[in-house]
Structure formats: structure tokens, C-alpha cells
Amino acid sequence: MKRLLAYFGVVVLACGCGLDEPALSDAGGSLIEFSASKMRVITKAGDSAEPFTEETNFRLFAVQNLGAVSDWSVSGVKFHDVEGIGSASGKVDYSIDGKKASYDVGRNLDFYGLTYGTSSEVSIIGEAGSTPSVSLSLADGPFPDLMYSDNLKNKNSSSGLLKMEFRHTMAKLKFEVLKQDETEDDDKKLTNVVLKKVVLKGSAASAVFSAGSGAWSYEASSVQDRVVYEPATGLKITESAQMLKSGEDVIEMLAVPNTDQLTLEVTLDMDGDTGDQEYKVVEYALMASETEKLVLEQN
Questions:
Q1: What confidence score (pLDDT) does residue 44 get?
Q2: Which of 94, 106, 222, 226 is in Cβ range 3.0-4.6 Å of 84 for a Cys bridge?
Q3: Mean pLDDT, residues 87-92 taken together
Q4: If pLDDT is split at 50, 70 and 90, which confidence band does 189 have?
Q5: Residues whose CB falls within 8 Å of the CB of residue 291, separated by 6 or more in sequence, listed in order
Q6: DSSP one-letter string for 182-240
């Protein structure tokens, strides 16, 4: 039986360096202000940063910089889980007890932010004095696009906006299945192929993101089979590339970045729509090479 070819891609947003830093001064008491955008993409035409829409909800943090680490203790926290709302100008409007925070002379700060890129609020675990984290589970529905900013480190006082740049914390997968060209193969053609189901194995169904380390963690027990595609009627596969679709939308999914200790696999359930093909389940290990497992990375 001829095999089906499966193509799986990870969408990655490129980023660049050498971006302008906010203007800094030694003046005490100047207000801390922010603007926010998605991480810049560098192309031949230049670099561009996609803005967030108005009313985007941000969770903001500022803690003292201790050189190599941020001080998340009660004494080190400048402000913790402060709500910021995106405006048309790109600024993030926020207040602490009715006013903006000001810089402390001689105190260097690290700034962090979390957002879903929507008006939905990110639920933070941990009070001031502990490193904040976010817990996500597929039991609550598809993973939201959790975004994270940690590009503002070791800042003292500012005479301008601090530009927060947010990156995606997950990996995005797109799924495409096609049948190989059998024009020259008259003996073993696979006809009337219908894709019934696609399942991703080896992916975490729940995980915790740390705003301190910028990394995900999950228990081995949270790794489950995840159904990607299972329509009421199957999708007929031809030699032309067939994107798996729900209505007119290509099927995409967000996945928690995996460790190199896990093997990602995809199983395809197939059948013939006229009953002339035996029902088959084909399994593919997703490998970066013959010897290296495929690792899903952030952004």
C-alpha cells in the first residue's frame, strides 16, 4: 500500500537586534510609561512591528535588578500584576492607586509583561513576593496565544516611553496531507483515499509558564493524545496538496514547546470512500533528522 505524505510546518516569527533603546536620564521621579508591540520582523524591506489593537489587556511587572537575576521578593517588587490597557496611540495605560509609577533614583529595574493580545485578562498565579506564572490547560479549550515581554532589563530612569516587545510563548503548527503522485504506478495505486482522523501524540495538554524564567514546565502525566482533525465526513485526498480545513479555515493549533526527551508523533486514520480500501492507521514520528527528535520552540 502506498504511503500518504504528510507535511507539518512550524510557523516562526523572526526577530532582529539593534533596535532603538528608550532615552534614559538620571532625573529622579520621572514617570514610568510603556508602549507595546509584537516582536519585530526583519525583512529586506526593513523591520516592522505589528501593533496591538485597542483595549488589549496587559499584565505588567517591575522588579529590582540584581545583576544576573531579577529580585521577585517583596522588597524587590516595584509593582506586581498591574493591569494595562492598550490605546490607539500604542501606549499602555495603567495606574497604581490612581497614578503612574515613578522611578527610584539609584534603583535599576527589570520590566515584564504578559498578554493574550486580546481584551481577555491573563490570570496570574502568585502574589507579590513570588515569581508570577500562568497555568493553561486544554480542558479549558484551545490554548490562547500567550505572549511575553522581557526585553526591558536593568533600566534606571526614563525621559521617554519604554518599548515593550512581546513574543509568542508557544509554537504554532499547520497540518497538510497529500497523496504521492502514482501516475507511473499501475499496480498498486491507492484510490478513493479518505482521511478520517489526525491525532498528535507527545504534546502536553497542560503546562505552566514562568514570567521569571520565560520557560514552560509540565508534568509527564499531562502528555496526551490530541485530536487535530475529526470531521463528520472524511476529507478525500488527491495528488494535489489538500490543506485540512474546517469550513474555509486551515487547521492550525498552538502547542506547548516540548523538550528533547519527548517524541512527537502523528497518526492518520484513512479509509476508502467506496469500501474498496482496507481501513488503515498510519503513524509518523516527527523527526528533525534521522537521529534527532523534532523540538517545538517558542515564537
A1: 57
A2: 94
A3: 92
A4: low
A5: none
A6: -TT--SS---SEEEEEEEEEEEESEEEEETTT--EE--GGGEEEEEEE--SS-EE--SS
